[in-house]
């Protein structure tokens, strides 16, 4: 211990007659006008040529010198040089990061290599503390309440966002302070300690370009990494692990354990002593403060969410109104389209049934007035069978058309049900829809507009076809009436001349029925766009897209 004390008193720096610091290597041996940087007494330079023995300044002792011994150490000046270097160059090389096991015999796990950390800004002697709201803040003020003070690093590095990224402590040893380690765990900011050697200013500058004198006090990667034990094997060739760094990281765990044990003992003492009520009141005050801060944060979050929803609703209000107007226009334009098609088909089916009845009556009258009774009976049976067969074929075709219509209706109902299920699922998943839904809504509206143009064109073609069919039906009805009159006249003439030939009206009427069937098929084809439009209308009326944002 005496040797260490003597070594500490062997200063390597002193002031010259101009009060300028001078390093021992740059001084001349003896009393050449050197003075102590602490007590300003005269010093002499002790220059040695012995290997492994350092030169130094010592106080010159006179007979009448004061008996009180100067205890000044030039480490203050060396630390000052180190801080000036960090404030100017804004960089330091930190050592590699390893994860150590609690068992000293286990090897360390490599996490990160050594690297140089550069800061955007550097500040000295900042005080980091926790305010009443639980937020971490820092200041240059020195009158911080020690109750909330957490850490006072010698140097602090900040990044471009003015966020602290590294604490630097200039020390004489790497022995950690337990309270300091606990505060670092609370702050969660990387920290290193740097030992400044008794060396020249140039050599002190080089300390920050190498990591030999730098050790980690706290590292987030090391704390968050789990140690995984590896099997023992041949350790030949494995690099030596820094034992001092292992102790620093292990000290964090011991520090936590010691802190918990001390806390348990302190609680036991407090529970048995009078100050317990004061401590309890303090805890209640802290809990109340935390609960109040939590409520304020929740209210702030709720207000921000409400403000954001209001902004989004206002932004989409105009677009939503435009979509509603377009839906109303489409609905008013094509509201009775399906009803008109059904009514027209029923009219066609009624006309076909009426024409069949007229044909049967006419055929019966013709048979009743032609030939002998026996021949009329035979012909009547043959023609009745033939007519019944053809009528059965026509009824089968009509039943097929009706069945197709019912199948289409069932398919339409099933499709509507599936679309409703999709809409319901979309409503359940609307909270997961990203911000880009607004663009998708606009694209969807544009798509629906194009689809509407296509549907309008199809409907116009359908109406044109319907009008053509109406004209064709009227024309065929006139031709059929004329044909009936011709058949009536030819039948009367045939009776008079006793010459009965084949009558072609049944085959022509059958062709008319096939034409009616084709028209119904065309209706089913053109009904599909209307079905699609109905689904679009129901989807937009449901307002699902309003909740996509």
What report would you give on this structure?
58% of the residues lie in helices and 13% in strands. Strand 11 (127-130) and strand 12 (136-139) form a beta hairpin. The protein has a five-stranded mixed sheet with strand order 10-14-15-16-17. Strands 3-4-5 form a three-stranded antiparallel sheet, with no helix packed on it. The protein folds into three domains: 2-73, no CATH class; 77-230 and 242-273, no CATH class; 334-547, no CATH class. The radius of gyration is 52 Å and the shape is rod-shaped. The chain is an alpha+beta fold. The chain has eleven helices and 17 strands. The model is unreliable at 1-8, 234-240 and 498-510 (pLDDT under 50). The protein has helices at residues 2-9, 75-89, 178-187, 201-207, 220-224, 243-272, 276-333, 337-368, 373-428, 437-497, 505-541; strands at 13-15, 21-23, 30-35, 42-46, 56-59, 91-94, 97-99, 109-112, 115-118, 121-124, 127-130, 136-139, 149-151, 155-158, 164-171, 191-195, 214-218.
For the residues shown, what is the average pLDDT?
Answer: 74
Shape field: rod-shaped
- Count of separate DSSP helical elements: 11
- Distance between the ends: 73 Å
Q: Compute the number of structural domains.
A: 3
Helix proportion of residues, in percent?
Answer: 55-70%
What does the main sheet amount to? 5 strands, mixed
């Amino acid at each position: 211990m005496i040797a260490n004390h003597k070594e500490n008193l062997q200063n390597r720096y002193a002031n010259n007659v101009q009060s300028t610091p001078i390093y021992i290597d740059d001084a001349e041996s003896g009393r050449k006008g050197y003075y102590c940087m602490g007590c300003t007494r005269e010093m002499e330079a002790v220059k040695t040529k012995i290997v492994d023995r350092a030169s130094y300044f010592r106080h010159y002792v006179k007979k009448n010198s004061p008996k009180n011994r100067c205890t000044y150490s030039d480490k203050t000046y060396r630390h000052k040089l180190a801080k000036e270097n960090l404030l100017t160059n804004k960089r330091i090389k930190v050592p590699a990061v390893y994860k150590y096991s609690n068992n000293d015999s286990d090897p360390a796990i490599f996490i990160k290599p050594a690297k140089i950390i550069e800061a955007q800004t550097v500040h000295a002697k900042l005080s980091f503390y926790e305010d009443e709201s639980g937020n971490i803040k820092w200041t240059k003020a020195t009158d911080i309440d020690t109750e909330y003070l957490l850490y006072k690093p010698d140097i602090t590095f900040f990044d471009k966002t003015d966020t602290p990224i590294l604490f630097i402590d200039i020390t004489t040893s790497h022995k950690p302070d337990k309270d300091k380690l606990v505060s670092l765990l609370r702050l969660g900011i990387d920290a290193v300690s740097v030992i400044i050697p008794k060396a020249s200013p140039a050599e002190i500058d080089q300390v920050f370009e190498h990591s030999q004198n730098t050790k980690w006090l706290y590292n987030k990667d090391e704390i968050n990494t789990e140690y995984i034990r590896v099997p023992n094997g041949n350790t030949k060739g494995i690099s030596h692990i820094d034992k001092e760094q292992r102790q620093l990281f292990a000290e964090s765990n011991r520090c936590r354990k010691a802190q918990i044990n001390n806390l348990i003992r302190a609680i036991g003492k407090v529970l048995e002593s009078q100050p317990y009520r004061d401590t309890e009141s303090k805890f209640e005050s802290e809990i109340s403060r935390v609960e109040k801060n939590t409520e304020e944060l929740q209210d702030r979050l709720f207000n921000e969410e409400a403000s954001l929803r209001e902004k989004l609703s206002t932004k989409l209000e105009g677009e939503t109104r435009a979509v509603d107007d377009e839906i109303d226009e489409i609905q008013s334009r094509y509201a009775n389209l399906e009803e008109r098609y059904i009514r027209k088909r029923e009219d066609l089916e009624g006309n076909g049934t009426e024409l069949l009845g007229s044909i049967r009556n006419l055929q019966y009258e013709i048979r009743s007035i032609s030939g002998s009774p026996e021949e009329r009976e035979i012909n009547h049976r043959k023609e009745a069978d033939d007519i019944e067969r053809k009528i059965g074929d026509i009824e089968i075709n009509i039943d097929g058309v009706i069945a197709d219509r019912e199948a289409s209706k069932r398919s339409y109902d099933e499709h509507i049900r599936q679309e409703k299920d999709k809409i319901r699922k979309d409503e359940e998943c609307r909270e997961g829809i990203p911000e880009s839904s607004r663009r998708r809504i606009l694209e969807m509206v544009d798509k629906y507009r194009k689809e509407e143009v296509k549907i309008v064109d199809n409907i116009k073609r359908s109406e044109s076809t319907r009008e053509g069919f109406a004209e064709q039906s009227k024309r065929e009805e006139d031709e059929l009436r004329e044909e009936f009159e011709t058949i009536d006249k030819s039948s009367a003439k045939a009776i008079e001349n006793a010459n009965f030939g084949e009558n072609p009206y049944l085959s022509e009427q059958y062709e008319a029925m096939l034409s009616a069937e084709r028209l119904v098929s065309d209706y089913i084809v053109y009904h599909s766009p209307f079905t699609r439009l109905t689904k679009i209308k129901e989807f937009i009326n449901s307002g699902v897209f309003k909740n996509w944002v």
